Amino acid sequence: MSERDLSDQEEIHSKVLRAGRRTYFFDVRSTKAGDYYLTITESKKFTHDDGSFHYKKHKIYLYKEDFDAFKENVEEMMDFIINEKGSEVISERHQKDFKKEDSETEVEIPVENTSTTSSFTDVSFEDI
Prior knowledge:
By secondary structure, the protein is an alpha+beta fold. It has two helices and four strands.
């Protein structure tokens, strides 16, 4: 069997999640026995001063017999984080262009009444 046939046999279904500098790959693969398992790969891009770059990858292999326990633990950990820290992404506060969107803190700016036409200049397109 060729390497391509083996690759086609193993990869059954894939999904990609791009999240900033990180990319997550969710791949359903096939074992030699024909059963399925899940690989979750985190790929993070690192750029060097000279403009070159490399990727660091971390991979988790998850088999069907572990799905229930894995899912319960992930959900428990995510619920814990949200309950303890809320859903706001704190790291966003440290970005240069961070602007918190809060509809309760609207500021009114007084505007002078300039509805008279005397403040306008009459422009003729022939002058341009």
